[in-house]
Amino acid sequence: xxxxxxxxxxxxxxxCPACHEYGVFHTWDVIDTADAKLSExxxxxxxxxxxTCPHCHAKIHMESKCLYIDRDKKLLxxxxxDPKERVxxxxxxDALGSPSxxxxxxxxxxxxxxxxxxxxxxxxxxxxxLYEIIKYGAYQLLSQEDKDRLPLEAYHIDYxxxxxxxxxxxxxxxxKDAKGMAYVYPITEHLKEVTKDIFSCPSSNRSxxxxxxxxxxxxxxxxxGSSRRTSLRLPKKTRTAKPMATSSVSGSRPSATKSSxxx
Length: 263
Ligand SMILES: [Zn+2]
What we know:
This protein has helices at about 35-45, 90-95, 110-125, 130-140, 145-150, 190-195, and strands at about 10-15, 20-30, 50, 60, 65-70, 75-80, 105-110, 155-160, 170-175, 180-185, 230, 240.
Protein backbone atom coordinates (compact mmCIF):
# COMPACT_ATOMS: atom_id res chain seq x y z
CA UNK A 1 0.00 0.00 0.00
CA UNK A 2 1.33 3.41 -0.90
CA UNK A 3 2.26 5.61 2.04
CA UNK A 4 0.29 8.82 2.46
CA UNK A 5 2.34 11.69 1.08
CA UNK A 6 1.28 15.30 1.59
CA UNK A 7 4.29 16.82 -0.19
CA UNK A 8 3.20 19.80 -2.25
CA UNK A 9 5.36 21.81 -4.61
CA UNK A 10 4.82 25.10 -6.38
CA UNK A 11 6.46 27.49 -8.80
CA UNK A 12 6.91 31.06 -7.62
CA UNK A 13 7.76 34.05 -9.78
CA UNK A 14 10.75 35.91 -8.38
CA UNK A 15 12.14 39.31 -9.22
CA CYS A 16 15.86 39.14 -8.62
CA PRO A 17 16.89 41.75 -6.03
CA ALA A 18 20.27 42.10 -7.76
CA CYS A 19 19.39 42.56 -11.45
CA HIS A 20 15.58 42.96 -11.16
CA GLU A 21 14.92 40.36 -13.86
CA TYR A 22 12.14 37.80 -13.35
CA GLY A 23 12.55 34.06 -12.97
CA VAL A 24 10.73 31.03 -11.59
CA PHE A 25 11.63 29.32 -8.33
CA HIS A 26 10.53 25.76 -7.72
CA THR A 27 9.81 25.16 -4.03
CA TRP A 28 7.57 23.35 -1.55
CA ASP A 29 4.97 24.51 0.96
CA VAL A 30 4.53 21.00 2.40
CA ILE A 31 7.36 18.49 2.75
CA ASP A 32 6.29 15.01 3.84
CA THR A 33 8.95 12.49 4.85
CA ALA A 34 7.02 9.89 2.85
CA ASP A 35 8.98 11.54 0.04
CA ALA A 36 12.30 10.02 1.15
CA LYS A 37 14.48 11.82 -1.41
CA LEU A 38 13.12 15.23 -0.50
CA SER A 39 13.28 14.63 3.24
CA GLU A 40 16.93 13.66 2.78
CA UNK A 41 17.49 17.00 1.06
CA UNK A 42 16.02 18.80 4.08
CA UNK A 43 18.79 17.27 6.15
CA UNK A 44 21.69 17.46 3.71
CA UNK A 45 21.07 20.08 1.05
CA UNK A 46 21.88 23.51 2.42
CA UNK A 47 20.94 25.05 -0.93
CA UNK A 48 17.39 23.68 -0.87
CA UNK A 49 15.82 27.10 -0.36
CA UNK A 50 18.16 29.13 -2.53
CA UNK A 51 17.14 30.54 -5.89
CA THR A 52 19.85 31.09 -8.46
CA CYS A 53 19.00 33.92 -10.81
CA PRO A 54 19.20 32.67 -14.41
CA HIS A 55 20.17 36.18 -15.57
CA CYS A 56 22.93 37.36 -13.20
CA HIS A 57 23.50 34.09 -11.27
CA ALA A 58 22.98 35.80 -7.89
CA LYS A 59 22.11 33.32 -5.21
CA ILE A 60 18.97 34.37 -3.34
CA HIS A 61 17.94 32.98 0.03
CA MET A 62 14.19 32.43 -0.17
CA GLU A 63 11.82 32.91 2.75
CA SER A 64 8.49 31.14 2.47
CA LYS A 65 6.02 29.18 4.57
CA CYS A 66 6.60 25.44 4.67
CA LEU A 67 5.25 22.58 6.78
CA TYR A 68 7.39 19.52 7.45
CA ILE A 69 5.43 16.32 8.20
CA ASP A 70 6.87 13.14 9.65
CA ARG A 71 4.00 10.66 10.07
CA ASP A 72 6.17 7.93 11.60
CA LYS A 73 7.61 10.12 14.34
CA LYS A 74 4.46 12.24 14.50
CA LEU A 75 6.11 15.61 13.91
CA LEU A 76 4.79 18.83 12.42
CA UNK A 77 7.40 21.56 12.03
CA UNK A 78 6.39 24.86 10.44
CA UNK A 79 8.72 27.34 8.82
CA UNK A 80 6.89 30.65 9.18
CA UNK A 81 9.25 33.52 8.30
CA ASP A 82 6.80 36.24 9.27
CA PRO A 83 5.54 35.89 12.87
CA LYS A 84 2.46 37.90 11.92
CA GLU A 85 1.48 35.32 9.33
CA ARG A 86 -1.48 33.20 10.41
CA VAL A 87 -1.63 29.45 10.15
CA UNK A 88 -5.01 27.76 10.48
CA UNK A 89 -5.85 24.28 11.75
CA UNK A 90 -7.46 23.65 8.38
CA UNK A 91 -4.13 24.18 6.60
CA UNK A 92 -2.55 21.54 8.82
CA UNK A 93 -5.53 19.19 8.42
CA ASP A 94 -5.43 19.57 4.64
CA ALA A 95 -1.69 18.94 4.45
CA LEU A 96 -1.98 15.97 6.78
CA GLY A 97 -5.13 14.60 5.17
CA SER A 98 -6.55 13.98 8.61
CA PRO A 99 -8.94 15.97 10.84
CA SER A 100 -6.86 15.45 13.97
CA UNK A 101 -3.23 16.14 14.74
CA UNK A 102 -3.45 16.00 18.54
CA UNK A 103 -0.97 13.11 18.72
CA UNK A 104 1.68 15.16 16.87
CA UNK A 105 4.51 17.19 18.36
CA UNK A 106 4.18 20.66 16.81
CA UNK A 107 6.89 23.28 16.43
CA UNK A 108 7.32 26.52 14.49
CA UNK A 109 10.53 28.25 13.40
CA UNK A 110 11.23 31.69 11.93
CA UNK A 111 14.32 30.84 9.89
CA UNK A 112 15.35 27.88 7.74
CA UNK A 113 18.31 27.32 10.09
CA UNK A 114 16.03 27.01 13.09
CA UNK A 115 13.55 24.91 11.12
CA UNK A 116 16.24 22.44 10.14
CA UNK A 117 17.53 22.53 13.71
CA UNK A 118 14.11 21.54 15.07
CA UNK A 119 13.81 18.70 12.57
CA UNK A 120 17.27 17.35 13.39
CA UNK A 121 16.62 17.57 17.13
CA UNK A 122 13.15 16.05 17.03
CA UNK A 123 14.34 13.19 14.85
CA UNK A 124 17.28 12.47 17.16
CA UNK A 125 16.63 10.86 20.48
CA UNK A 126 16.89 14.07 22.55
CA UNK A 127 14.28 16.44 23.85
CA UNK A 128 14.49 19.52 21.62
CA UNK A 129 13.67 21.78 24.60
CA LEU A 130 16.97 20.75 26.13
CA TYR A 131 18.71 22.34 23.14
CA GLU A 132 16.73 25.54 23.63
CA ILE A 133 18.17 25.71 27.15
CA ILE A 134 21.67 25.04 25.86
CA LYS A 135 21.25 27.80 23.28
CA TYR A 136 19.82 30.21 25.81
CA GLY A 137 22.64 29.52 28.27
CA ALA A 138 25.35 29.78 25.63
CA TYR A 139 23.97 33.05 24.31
CA GLN A 140 24.04 34.63 27.77
CA LEU A 141 27.80 34.02 27.87
CA LEU A 142 28.47 36.22 24.85
CA SER A 143 29.71 39.76 25.29
CA GLN A 144 27.35 42.51 24.18
CA GLU A 145 29.67 43.16 21.25
CA ASP A 146 29.38 39.52 20.15
CA LYS A 147 25.61 39.57 20.66
CA ASP A 148 25.43 42.50 18.26
CA ARG A 149 27.56 40.64 15.73
CA LEU A 150 25.99 37.19 16.18
CA PRO A 151 22.25 37.86 16.51
CA LEU A 152 20.07 35.41 18.41
CA GLU A 153 17.66 35.21 15.48
CA ALA A 154 20.33 33.67 13.29
CA TYR A 155 21.72 31.33 15.93
CA HIS A 156 20.86 27.67 15.62
CA ILE A 157 21.88 24.08 16.13
CA ASP A 158 23.13 22.05 13.20
CA TYR A 159 25.17 18.96 12.44
CA UNK A 160 28.70 19.26 13.84
CA UNK A 161 30.34 17.94 10.67
CA UNK A 162 29.69 16.47 7.26
CA UNK A 163 28.84 13.06 8.69
CA UNK A 164 25.35 14.48 9.42
CA UNK A 165 25.20 12.32 12.52
CA UNK A 166 22.31 13.43 14.76
CA UNK A 167 24.37 12.42 17.79
CA UNK A 168 27.00 14.99 16.78
CA UNK A 169 25.45 18.43 16.90
CA UNK A 170 26.93 21.90 17.20
CA UNK A 171 25.93 25.42 18.15
CA UNK A 172 26.17 27.68 15.11
CA UNK A 173 26.46 31.42 15.61
CA UNK A 174 25.91 33.12 12.25
CA UNK A 175 27.60 36.47 11.72
CA LYS A 176 25.27 39.30 10.94
CA ASP A 177 27.40 41.18 8.45
CA ALA A 178 29.22 38.29 6.82
CA LYS A 179 26.46 36.07 5.48
CA GLY A 180 27.47 32.46 5.48
CA MET A 181 30.21 32.94 8.07
CA ALA A 182 29.62 31.21 11.37
CA TYR A 183 31.28 30.12 14.57
CA VAL A 184 30.60 26.47 15.23
CA TYR A 185 30.90 24.76 18.61
CA PRO A 186 30.33 21.06 19.07
CA ILE A 187 27.78 20.03 21.69
CA THR A 188 29.80 17.54 23.67
CA GLU A 189 28.66 14.51 25.64
CA HIS A 190 29.69 16.39 28.76
CA LEU A 191 27.45 19.30 27.86
CA LYS A 192 24.47 17.01 27.34
CA GLU A 193 25.29 15.29 30.62
CA VAL A 194 25.28 18.53 32.66
CA THR A 195 22.04 19.74 31.09
CA LYS A 196 20.26 16.39 31.30
CA ASP A 197 18.98 16.94 34.85
CA ILE A 198 17.00 19.97 33.75
CA PHE A 199 14.53 17.62 32.11
CA SER A 200 14.69 14.64 34.41
CA CYS A 201 11.19 13.94 35.63
CA PRO A 202 10.37 10.54 37.10
CA SER A 203 6.81 10.31 35.82
CA SER A 204 7.37 11.42 32.26
CA ASN A 205 10.12 12.27 29.86
CA ARG A 206 8.14 15.37 28.83
CA SER A 207 8.73 17.64 31.78
CA UNK A 208 7.60 21.24 32.17
CA UNK A 209 9.72 24.03 30.72
CA UNK A 210 12.42 24.99 33.19
CA UNK A 211 13.00 28.59 34.16
CA UNK A 212 16.01 30.71 33.43
CA UNK A 213 17.62 30.11 36.79
CA UNK A 214 18.90 26.80 35.47
CA UNK A 215 21.04 28.55 32.93
CA UNK A 216 24.12 28.28 35.12
CA UNK A 217 24.22 24.57 34.37
CA UNK A 218 25.26 25.25 30.81
CA UNK A 219 28.22 27.43 31.70
CA UNK A 220 30.56 24.78 30.31
CA UNK A 221 30.00 26.14 26.82
CA UNK A 222 32.86 28.25 25.53
CA UNK A 223 31.90 31.60 24.09
CA UNK A 224 33.09 32.59 20.65
CA GLY A 225 35.97 34.46 22.22
CA SER A 226 37.52 31.42 23.83
CA SER A 227 37.79 28.91 21.06
CA ARG A 228 37.58 30.20 17.55
CA ARG A 229 36.55 27.54 15.12
CA THR A 230 35.40 29.38 12.11
CA SER A 231 33.67 27.37 9.50
CA LEU A 232 31.86 28.19 6.36
CA ARG A 233 28.41 26.68 6.63
CA LEU A 234 26.50 28.30 3.81
CA PRO A 235 27.31 29.85 0.47
CA LYS A 236 29.38 32.96 1.03
CA LYS A 237 27.42 35.52 -0.89
CA THR A 238 23.69 35.31 -0.47
CA ARG A 239 20.74 37.62 -0.57
CA THR A 240 17.33 37.01 0.83
CA ALA A 241 13.95 37.45 -0.76
CA LYS A 242 10.40 36.37 -0.11
CA PRO A 243 8.47 34.83 -2.98
CA MET A 244 6.06 37.39 -4.46
CA ALA A 245 7.90 40.22 -2.72
CA THR A 246 8.80 41.55 -6.09
CA SER A 247 9.82 45.04 -5.12
CA SER A 248 12.15 44.61 -2.18
CA VAL A 249 14.18 42.31 -0.04
CA SER A 250 13.76 44.35 3.09
CA GLY A 251 11.43 41.86 4.72
CA SER A 252 14.15 39.27 4.95
CA ARG A 253 14.72 37.93 8.41
CA PRO A 254 18.53 37.69 8.50
CA SER A 255 18.98 41.33 7.57
CA ALA A 256 16.18 42.58 9.80
CA THR A 257 18.10 41.78 12.96
CA LYS A 258 18.81 44.21 15.72
CA SER A 259 20.91 43.78 18.80
CA SER A 260 18.70 41.63 20.95
CA UNK A 261 20.42 41.79 24.31
CA UNK A 262 19.95 44.47 26.97
CA UNK A 263 21.81 47.72 26.30
ZN1 LIG B 1 19.55 38.47 -11.18
